[in-house]
Design a protein that fits this description.
This protein has 403 residues and is of the alpha/beta class. It contains 13 helices and 19 strands. The strands form four sheets. Strands 11-10-9-12-13-14-15 form a seven-stranded parallel β-sheet, sandwiched between helices. Helix 6 links the parallel strand 9 and strand 10. Helix 3 packs across helix 6. The chain is elongated, with a radius of gyration of 26 Å.
Length: 403
Amino acid sequence: MITIRLSLKKMKAGIIMYNIQTLNKIAACGTDLLDKSKYTVSDSAENPDAILVRSAAMHDMELGSNLLAIARAGAGTNNIPIDKCSERGIVVFNTPGANANAVKELVICALLLSSRKIVPSTEWIKTLKGKGDEVSKLVEKGKSRFVGPEIMGKKLGVIGLGAIGILVANAAAALGMEVYGADPFLSVDNALKLTGKVHYVKSNDEIYEKCDYITLHVPATAETKGMINAETIAKMKKNVRLLNFARGDLVDSKAVLDALANGGMACYATDFATDELIGAENVIAFPHLGASTPESEDNCAVMACKEIQDYLENGNIKNSVNLPNMEMAITGTAKICVIHKNVEGVINNITSPISAMGMNIENMQSKSKKDYAYTCLDVAGNTTGIEEKLKVVPNVVGVRVVK
């Protein structure tokens, strides 16, 4: 299906107007960044140019013909039909790092809770209500049931050194832990953010073998689903404490429960409660609280709205999950933005009609991300009618002219 994107289709007093739909409550500190003379933002917008979403399920949602972009105010995009969007030339953004500090703080909290048996101890204390003067004596008698180790000097393995993993690794090192980190895709920028106290290892197996605590910070993909299972748990130290505040699908819950029952694991702390985990001994399950802070919600809203604004107004892409990052200024008459399949020969087929219409290409960038690519051409000349010519180019899925 070919999608034509006309940037001048809606005008108000000579200004391009964009219609934004919110599927969840988005913090006003974000939506207020969208100039009201250019944007209308509401939860009832029909056939919007862009959608702002948090957790609302979109897989069965009809995507309107005007839709150019979806921004997820958060990191995960499992609620968005990525493949369908790519086929339609719709850019999907997320907000990596915006909630990183909130998740880091919860992970450090869980790290301590998993060691000191604080949760069962506070539950036990409630049973002493009404014992009057006996409470102090009962506390001294019963507290030995809740002895747990200190984290200082213990080994923590951080699997995944993205925005959150780096913060967790650095914080744990500052608390006196011996920290090991593994990430085959560690970027230069992220490596520079790591404290020199963190030991970088090449494989997860090294972490399984060495560490007393393991925390997961990787995305849920076909490769990572069920990465913690009976086989990998068997490689871990006895009485290991496992933390999962990334994605529930990373862990085989049955394998974890078996390990907890047979002494192969001391504790499992997770932000992804399931029926089988709730109430299980030595399981600390939270109700997906990782990003549940007002600061995190504000950060995500601001980042998502800025991403939408820069794409709609300038054709720039940053933090897209289905298309490459690209930023290019307009120095000529306009910028022609083309989303297309990442196959041979497309760029030649795009530039030919542009040249044939007498436009001069001042600058051009083209980048790919897996099956799709984004090509931007800064041109001088009359662009009238170029959308019609480019829409029939094989493997082109979206065309816009930004002025």
